[in-house]
Amino acid sequence: MRLDLLAALSGVLIALQARANGELSHLLDNGLQAAVISFGSGLIIIFTITLFNSKIKTGIRNLRTAVAHKKIARWKLFAGSLGGSFIAIQTQIVPLIGVAIFSVASIAGQTAMSLIVDRIGLTGGGKKLISLRRVAAALLTVVAVLVSVWDRIDANNLSMFAVAAGIFAGAVVGVQRALNGEINEYTDQSFTTSLLNFMMGTSFLLILLISAIFFGENELSPLPSGPWWIYTGGVIGVIYIAFTSTIVQHLGVLTFTLFSVGGQLVGSLVIDLVSPTDGVNVSVYLVTGIVMTYAGVVAGGVGHLRKKKAKQIS
Hints:
The chain is mainly alpha-helical.
């Protein structure tokens, strides 16, 4: 199978994870518990893989050396807690607004945050100027969010707070990816970076859940018996990591992101058509918003991609 199609498939996996985590949250009526289950199951899987993979163990040693020599700040190792925050928000919001609108909102947040992340050089690769093309792309994706929910801006139909939370979740992911990029430079092994993320994310969510229970703001719910796919969030996360760790090396980050976003948007739309959450309807506004969002992502990256190819040719 072509690598670009695999990249698009990885985007579909993100949409599937959102649907699984959202339904688990709905059935449990406890978004925080659902987030812990999703992240925790992923941690168990990748920890088991680590026991039999010497390369991941080498990556752990490389990271320890980098920290010991102060090549990377210790606080950056907590990037996984941002991933935990994203899953916590995802499990709360998807049951309210559906996979498609959440995807559009989170992508808008990612695009906007990428401008800030590149400008301050959070990835460790130096500061990058904010081009007019990328600013236009960020604005287009924000407008796309408004278009996608235009027919549902109603206090009884759609929570704009939920949409804003989706945008914030995307911004959190933007920061996390930047930090992971720097961490990966020192581990030289993407699965080691992923293991660290799952450890930090699960720990963060457990602390939140235990604190909420202690203060009487949350209590554990019995696990629902099905459907079976509601428990696949962690597994999907591990598969997604396996895809990205292989494909990105061949396609490059930019090209991978473009195809992945396309797969995520189309996948989320299909999911909301085939297996929608209660009260979620697919309208022409939503479809238009998805098209605009994808156009914004492409507009923000095609120019850079052309420059990169030109340099390779010269």
